[in-house]
Fold this sequence. Notes:
The complex is a heterodimer. Chain A has helices spanning about 1-20, 25-50, 55-65, 65-85, 85-90, 95-125, 135-160, 165-180, 195-200, 205-215, 220-255.
Amino acid sequence: MNSVRVFFIGGLTSYRALFGWLSPWVFVPSLLVAPIFQILLFVYIGRSAQLESDEFYVIGNAIQYAAVPCLFAMTHLVAGERFQQTLGYILITPAKRLPLFVGRALPVVTNGFFVSAFALLVGGAVVGIDVPTSAWAPIALAAAVSAFACTGLGLVTAGLGLVVRETSVLANIIFGLLLVFSGSNVPIEHLPRWMQVVSAGIPFTHGIAAVRGLADGDGLADAWGLIGTEALIGVVYGTIGYALIRGAEFLGRRHATLDRA
Amino acid sequence: MRRSLRLLGLGWLFHMKMLSQSWFNMLLELVWPVFFATVAFFMFRAGDDPKPLLYASLGAAAMGIWSTTSTAAGNSLARERWHGTLELLVAAPASFPLVLLPTTIAMASIGVYGMAATLLWGWLVFGIELTIASPLAFALAIPATVLSIGALGFLLAIAFVRFRQAWALGNMLEYPVWLISGFLVPLALFPGWVWPLSWALAPTWGVDAIREAALGGSAWTEICLALGLGGLYVAVGVLLVRRALEAARSKATLALS
């Protein structure tokens, strides 16, 4: 019961306390306005390059922009404890580590999904794309799974954030890599072969492909394979991230370097 | 006049050194525009009209100048406030705008590293050869762009002085300015109501000047417009900062917002 409490209440409290993202002065410009302009930027580049339809870029960027809340939030929710000098207090508690850290991921996934959904709805309305109403529920599922997968990657950056100092820079670089490799703006078949291999193993690639298929009239049955792969990628990254965090905790205790990076 | 120029020059040098201290941060300044350039290069190469690759390369290269300025400049006064140095800078006998302006110009100057990295990346990986039709105009267009974007950053820093989370507002402006200043997209693609907004932005003329100088047009008008708008931003910024400081002094709210 205590683990469930740590999972839900601890996760939500740390999210609100550490981030302050409930402040509209950060939330609105960073997570609601910026994704719309990222969509518009690539829609117009796409029109100039005469490559794909507007819908292609709206979906790609709306789903990919979940990387901002998922990577930054997850990284700061763990590594930010060091900055606030609360990491030591958390790690001396008897609370089980799995609900402690994974609980912090739940609000992040929810927030990432919300940002994607908002960008998809508003960006789609601004640009004027046509998605059948029947596709919205499966698209929401694919978007949520994509946010989950990226939060798994966020756990990895959180683990790395316990050993490097510049966590924001790290999250920005991973955001950029996801922009290039995930197929959000360039059809995967136009990428070099080695990049296609990388694409297959990162968050968003399968989620974006699933959403594009659903928007074009595929049924949920057709998208299950892609959604399932996206979920599996999230589980793999989440497991690696959790192992990294535990490893960093172990090293921090052993070398008395918990508050140092 | 000489003392003011010395203050501007030393302030610029001092902030360049400070901004260059973190190698991790410098790495981000180098690779951030490269990510967007890479996506744009793939898009233009795969698209039906592959001719604008050099056009995109020059625009993407200049994107770094704005991205190093927008967030950092928006946040520059808030950062001084956090460090507890804002009161000292305001109380110093030196004119406050002369202290702040080199900060934002230094931020824009750091973007030149990203510009070089993007052009090099485009050449090495995508085979985009940079042929400069007018080297003199090109050599002048780059500092003109840096100065005008630094001046825009100065105006943002002052406009956001009352916002505690000014970095988020500065960060929000990164994409819109990239978009409507025509860094990667010709202005002709936008609706007519966007054009006056684009023309009022110095980066529009700066990036145009860089392109014209490289591709063989006349860049002198664009260079003058970029510098002229930059001067206008500084003048408006100086007026605003005086009013803001007077209000902060009379209400004792300099450290609080």
